[in-house]
Design goal:
The chain is an alpha+beta fold. 53% of the residues lie in helices and 10% in strands. The protein is globular, with a radius of gyration of 35 Å.
Length: 717
């Protein structure tokens, strides 16, 4: 919360003190202090302000009330457009006065995500507030925190602050930020969080290098520790050899979560029997007692981990599965046990699409969530999946199954690796697609302000799995099983198991290929009373299928834009395509076309044709999408364009079928010359109605031919 609080303090101060602040304030934060430094003017001046009063001739009571409200006299009013107007002169307020006026309000309303009260005051802060330091131009500004009858602990700002609570207790005065930072450094406090972070990173790395080791990267832990210490002192401790047979992830997680220790490793990646800690004091014995104490604590922590490791290995992964029927995944989506059964089928369903063995993928998906019921994951939820992989290896399951279990959450972030073997890919895709489709089907979609179920992360995981493994996965088809089950359960209640069982008995290559297959299963499974809900099922299914696809393609668009791709080219390439790899190939080919001279001219001609059609179709009240009548083509240029269109359409269709998008774009490029000639020589809105209609049909044919390759209307000129 510290870094966020420093940002909030700067933002709120800049708003409250806008007439004074020059430039952006700079915040600082640490475990015992939060503040900002800013350049400010000595005075704030406000412009004159007019207050309109009663109309001329209004009753005296109205005039008296207006004067009383503004503490003014009749002589101060002027007549303006039939009204009496009070002109208030601009004000000049000293910086000290504005600080004393605005800062208490800012502190009382500070947006801590968690806060507390203490004593009898109603003032809220993240921890008991001890003092306020406020200095302007070298002098203290006595800002009083009290509000009305609430004394707010009697805190009044002054020029005093305090050093390190152990090495340099007691208050001292400062005259400005530079003096503040320098005197605190003398008193064992580093004000700047970035400097503390660098000291920790470099200090720990130096100690590790002296032992021939390296630090396991952990930026999150680094930031957390920098927020816990004011005077960082890195130290090294030793891990008992008796614990070195524990999985490295177990040791790292126990050290990180419980003690905020940094894990070390050998250059070849093996876990080292050393750890780094960061003290907040420079101990007189060089830290020997601190290290010994932390080693004792770590032994106790790792003994707990050893207990869970030994206990969990006494039973096969399969034995954990029944417990998942008692663990709620989500109130609207049932238990983890129910989700496991969905994942098992979905992995089987997806396996042929990613060239994975169907039975192996199904078994891996069945066991992927088993470790959620283990003692180790109960203690350290961060290890879910990872522990399942370890337990699978210990039990002698196939290595590929263990890998799939361990990797099925990946990627969990932009820096995380992506599974590459087909079976782990199938299980990872099943996990993320089920998450997306399931939450969409029950109405739990992300909003602009929140994404509590990490659906954006799941979508980006799907995109990375597809892109980095060059997978051909039709998204509409891939989300069908989950949508059928979740929507079916909601609409058909106790009959939903019949629906799911019937669908799962169908061969996976045809069960969900077309929605009509689902309709047939509904017809065969239910009596007519239940069938009344079929159309609602169809509507909900298709709506959610489209919503998941839109969500994924929007994430793809955001990602490509972040990589520097043209957003309009990406938008034009997506259309209704649900194959992400095909969208990417289309975007690359379209970019090459529109950034060429031929493409730019072709795009201009397309937009001209589109504008003409939009105007004329609106005027006529109908579309001109009927077939062109060749016998009515008179001008050589329109005859040539029609012939070029026929040739380009045929070539583009063949190329699109072969997914040769550069060739499809090249087919469009051949239309440039005949289009230029057509617009130069032919009058589309001919006085002869039959000629006009046929030429509009020709432009409509042009538009359709180009739209089948990409939605060029979304390309910016």
């Amino acid at each position: 919360m510290q870094a966020r609080a420093a940002e909030d303090l700067c933002r709120l101060a800049q708003q409250a003190l806008a007439p004074l602040i020059q430039g952006a304030p700079r915040g600082f934060h640490g475990p015992r202090r939060l503040g900002l430094v800013a350049e400010m003017a000595a005075f704030a001046e406000t412009a004159p302000k007019e207050e309109r009063g009663p109309r001329l001739g209004a009753p005296e009571q109205a005039l008296a009330g207006f004067l009383k409200k503004h503490n003014a006299t009749r002589e101060q009013l002027i007549e303006q457009n039939g009204f009496l107007v009070l002109v208030k002169p601009g004000e000049r307020i000293a910086a000290e006065a504005l600080l004393a006026q605005k800062l208490p309000e800012l502190l009382w309303s500070f947006p801590w995500p968690k806060s507390m009260r203490w004593g009898v005051s109603q003032f809220l802060w993240v921890r008991p507030l001890q003092r306020i330091l406020c200095v302007f131009d070298g002098k203290p500004v006595p800002v009083a925190l009290a509000r009305g009858e609430d004394a707010a602990h009697g805190i009044v700002a002054d020029a005093l602050t305090e050093g390190h609570r152990v090495h340099a207790p007691g208050a001292f005065a400062v005259t400005g930020y530079a003096d503040h930072a320098a005197k605190l450094r003398e008193r064992f406090v580093i004000v700047d969080a970035a400097e503390r972070t660098a000291m920790i990173r470099e200090g720990v790395a130096k100690l590790a290098a002296a032992e021939g080791l390296e630090v396991v990267p952990d930026e999150g832990l680094l930031a957390e520790v920098a927020g816990l210490v004011e005077w960082p002192v890195p130290l090294l401790g030793r891990i008992d050899d008796a614990f070195m047979d524990l999985p490295a992830e177990v040791m790292r997680t126990s050290m990180r979560v419980n003690q905020r220790y940094f894990a070390l490793r050998h250059p070849d990646g093996r876990a080292a029997n050393r750890f780094a800690l960061v003290a907040n004091i420079a101990a007189s014995d060089g830290g020997a007692a601190l290290v010994a104490g932390n080693e004792r604590v770590l032994r106790a922590r790792l003994s707990d981990a050893r207990f869970f490791w030994d206990q969990d290995r006494k039973q096969p992964l399969e034995s954990f599965l029944p417990k998942l029927d008692g663990v709620v995944f989500h109130a609207k989506l049932g238990t983890q046990g129910k989700r496991v059964r969905r994942l098992e089928f979905l992995a089987r369903f997806l396996a042929p699409m990613v060239d994975a063995d169907v039975e192996v993928a199904s078994q891996a998906a069945r066991l992927a969530k088993a470790d959620l019921a283990s003692g180790m994951v109960g203690e350290f939820p961060e290890l879910q999946g990872i522990m399942g992989g370890h337990y699978a290896r210990v039990q002698g399951l196939a290595p590929i199954i263990a890998d799939a279990i361990a990797q099925h959450y990946r990627p969990v972030g932009p820096a995380d690796t992506v599974p590459t073997d087909p079976v782990p890919v199938a299980v990872a895709l099943a996990d993320k697609l089920d998450q997306l489709a399931g939450f969409f089907a029950v109405g739990e979609k992300p909003t602009g302000s929140g994404d509590p179920y990490a659906l954006r992360r799941a979508a980006l995981g799907v995109i990375r799995l597809v892109r980095e493994n060059a997978l051909r996965v039709p998204i509409r088809k891939a989300v069908m099983p989950t949508l059928v089950e979740v929507i079916g359960e909601r609409l058909f209640g106790e009959f939903s198991d019949q629906l799911v069982d019937a669908l799962r008995r169908l061969p996976t290559d045809i069960a969900y290929e077309e929605f009509e297959a689902i309709r047939k299963v509904l017809d065969k499974t239910f009596d007519r009373g239940i069938l009344e809900r079929r159309e609602q099922f169809a509507a909900d299914f298709l709506a959610n299928q489209a919503a998941v696809l839109d969500f994924l393609t929007e994430r793809l668009r955001v990602q490509l834009r972040a990589e520097g791709a043209r957003h309009d080219v990406v938008a034009a390439s997506i259309g209704q395509d649900d194959d992400l790899l095909r969208i990417l190939a289309r975007a690359d080919a379209l970019k090459a076309l529109v950034e060429s001279e031929t493409g730019a001219n072709l795009l201009a001609a397309y937009k001209r044709a589109q504008n003409i059609l939009r105007i004329e179709e609106k005027k006529d009240g109908k579309a001109h999408d009927q077939a062109v009548e060749p016998d009515r083509l008179e001008a050589p240029e329109e005859i040539a364009l029609n012939a070029a269109l026929a040739k380009a359409e045929a070539e583009a269709q063949v190329s699109l079928a072969a997914e040769d998008f550069p060739a499809a774009m090249a087919a469009l490029a051949t239309l440039r010359a005949p289009l230029d000639a057509f617009f130069e020589k032919v009058i589309v809105n001919s006085p002869e109605p039959s000629l006009r209609q046929n030429r509009l049909r020709l432009l409509s044919r042009l538009r359709s031919a180009m739209d089948q390759v990409a939605d060029l209307s979304k390309i910016e000129s």
